[in-house]
C-alpha cells in the first residue's frame, strides 16, 4: 500500500479522500467538479478498508462499520423488548417448573417463548454477546474514526486548495484589488468572535470550537466505562443482592458478609394513616382510598462476630449499633446496606393448650409450645403430664393418607400428643391440628383444648452491596459531558484566500449552518467583501429546476 | 507501519475478547461462586447431633465425609434416606462417614423422622442456618462429597435416585 503524496507536499495515509493539509481532492473527479464535498471525518482515511488482508483485519473491519453497529443496537433493542412480553423466569411463582409454567399459563406461545429461551433472556449467552458486541463495535468504530480525524485536523494548513474551497457549502468570491483594509477588519472582528486565527501568505484560517468534534468520542468512552461497570458486577465480592427473612426476636447471620455480621430483629411495625390521629389534610385522601400505609419499620440490632468461629458454632457477638430500618432508610455498615423490602404479619410462634377432662371439662394445667422448637415433655399438675410424639409445622395429609408437613414454617401446626393422667397412666393419644381433634381409638377421657396463640411478625430485608456504582456513575458523567460537548458547541472554520485580485471566503461548520452564516454576515458587513452563498440551497434549486 | 497496525489491532481485539469472555464465564458461574464447589476446601463447621454429640468437620480429616443436607418435609430427601442407612455401616468401616445435616427444623420433628426410618448415621441440626448459608445450599437435597483432605470432590444436586449411584458416590471419597 502506498502513501499518497499531495502536490502541496503533505504525505497522506492510503485511502485518504481529501489531503489532510490542503484539502485537495484525490479521488476520481477533478477539482473543478461542482459537487459539494462530504466533510465527514475531514475526508480522512478512516478504517482503511484496504487493509483487509488478514483474519484480524476482517474482524476489525466488520466491527468498524457503523452499519453493523446500528444493526447490533436494533437487534438488541428488539430482543430486549421481547423479553418483557412474558414475565422472566425469576419472577414466576414457584408453583411448578418453568418448563411447564409457560405452556400452562400462556399456551403455545408460552411454550415457544420458553423453548426459544426468552424466559431467561437477559442472562442468556446470546444476549450477553449482543451487548458485548455493541461494546466492541463502539471501541473499534471510535478508534477507527477519532485517530484519522485528529490527524487531519492537526495537519490542516491555512492555505487550502482551490478545489477544496470551491466545494464548501458556504462559498463566495469577490473581485477586489486592494484587500488589505477589509482583511484587517475581518481579522479583528473574527478575533472578537473568539476565533483562533492562523495566517499564511496573506491567507487566513479562523477556527473555533474544535473540541466539540471530540464530543461523540468522549461520549463513547463514558459508555465503555459504563459497560465495564456492568461487567464488574460479575466479579466476586463486587456485588451482593440477597434477601434475609428474619422473625422478631431472631438473630441471623447476614448473607454475603462471610458470616461476619449478624442481625437481630427486635420488632417489626406496620403503621397506616389514621383519621383520628393524623393531620386533617389527609382526611379526603383517606376517604377515597381507605387504608394507606404510613410506615414499615424493622427495629434491629447489628452485631459483629468476635474472634474466629466456624459455622454452626455459637459465635460471640459484639453489638455494633441499634437501628430502625424504614423504607428508603437502610441500615448501612461497611459497604453493605439493608433495605426494608417485604414482611409477613402474625406468623404463628407459640401455641397454648390446656388439658381437660372431656366430660367434666375440668382443667389440669396448660402448656405452651414453641412452634419453632417444641419441647417433647411437659409436666402439668401433679400426676398429669403430656408428651409430644409428632409435630408437623405445616400440616397436610400426604398422598398416602398420613399426616406430613409441607415446610418447616408453622403455617398450620399439628401435633400428636400423648396425655398421661392418674386414670390413664399408660397414656392416651390424640392428633391435634387447628380446629381438628382426632382420636385414633376414639375413646379418650381427656383432650388437649386450644388455649390461644402468640404470633410474631417477620420482616424481609434486602442485603445489598454494590461496589460498581461509582464506575457506572463516572461512566454516566463522562457520557453526559460528551453529549454536552458535542451538542452545545459547533466546530466552525472560515477560510479567506486572496489571489490575483480575488478574495475567496469559504466556511464550514459541523452543525448549525444558520449560526455560521449569521456570524459571517456580521463579520463581513461593510467591508466590501460579499457575503458568501449557501451552495447547498443553490444546488437544491438547480435540481428542482431540472426535475421541473 | 502495516505490521504495527496489525499488532495493534490484534492486541486490542484480544483485550476485548478477554473482557467479553470473562463476563460470559463469570455470568455462567455466578451461582457457583458464592457456593462451595468442586475442588474447593469444604468450610469447617460444628453441629450437634440428636444424641448431643458435637461433630466438627475438621475432626474427620483422614476420612471421607458424605455430607447430605435435608429436611423432613422434602420428599426426595426422604426417599434417599433408606439407601444411606443401608450403606452407612459398610462404608463407615471403610473410612467414609455419612453426616446428614437437617436444615433448621425442630428436634421433635427430626427425632420422630429418624425413629421412623431407624436412621443410624449421625443427624445434626443446623438451627440458625449458618452452615446452610456457608455452603450456599438451595434447594434441598444436596450432597457434598468431601475427601480425606477436606476437599470437595463432587457436589450432587437433587435426589440420589438409586442405591447404585449412592455407592458410586461413596466410592469416590474412600480414603
Helices and strands in order, then pairings?
The complex is a heterodimer of chains A (548) and B (175).
Chain A: E1 4-5, E2 11-12, H1 55-64, H2 66-82, H3 98-115, H4 125-155, H5 162-166, E3 170-175, H6 180-192, E4 196-200, E5 203-208, H7 215-232, E6 239-247, E7 251-253, E8 261-272, H8 283-289, E9 293-306, E10 316-326, E11 331-333, E12 336-357, E13 363-370, E14 377-379, E15 385-392, E16 395-397, E17 403-405, E18 414-420, E19 428-433, E20 436-438, E21 446-466, H9 469-488, E22 492-499, E23 502-509, H10 513-524, E24 533-534, H11 535-547
Antiparallel strand pairs in A: 1-2, 3-23, 3-24, 4-5, 5-22, 6-21, 7-8, 8-9, 9-10, 11-12, 12-13, 12-21, 14-15, 15-18, 16-17, 18-19, 19-20, 22-23
Helix pairs in contact in A: 1-4, 2-4, 4-7, 7-9
Chain B: H1 2-33, E1 46-48, E2 54-56, E3 64-70, H2 75-93, E4 96-103, H3 107-117, E5 123-126, H4 130-135, E6 142-146, E7 152-157, H5 163-172
Parallel strand pairs in B: 3-4, 4-5
Antiparallel strand pairs in B: 1-2, 3-6, 6-7
Helix pairs in contact in B: 2-5
InterPro entries (chain A): Cyt_c_bgen_Ccs1/CcsB/ResB, ResB-like_domain
Organism (chain A): Robertmurraya mangrovi
Pfam family, one (chain A): ResB
Describe the model:
The complex is a heterodimer of chains A (548) and B (175). Chain A has 548 residues and is α+β, with helices and mostly antiparallel strands. Chain A folds into four domains: 4-153, no CATH class; 160-209 and 490-547, TATA-Binding Protein (2-Layer Sandwich), CATH 3.30.310; 239-345 and 460-465, no CATH class; 348-455, no CATH class. Chain A is 30% helix and 32% strand. Chain A has eleven helices and 24 strands. In chain A, the strands form six sheets. A six-stranded antiparallel beta sheet of chain A has the order 4-5-22-23-3-24. In chain A, strands 6, 11, 12, 13 and 21 form a five-stranded antiparallel beta sheet that branches. A five-stranded antiparallel beta sheet of chain A has the order 14-15-18-19-20, with no helix packed on it. The mean pLDDT of chain A is 86. Chain B folds into two domains: 1-30; 33-172, Glutaredoxin. Chain B contains five helices and seven strands. Chain B has helices at residues 2-33, 75-93, 107-117, 130-135, 163-172, and strands at 46-48, 54-56, 64-70, 96-103, 123-126, 142-146, 152-157. In chain B, the strands form two sheets. In chain B, strands 5-4-3-6-7 form a five-stranded mixed beta sheet. A two-stranded antiparallel sheet of chain B has the order 1-2. Classes of the chains: A alpha+beta (548), B alpha/beta (175). The interface between A and B is large, with 49 and 48 residues.
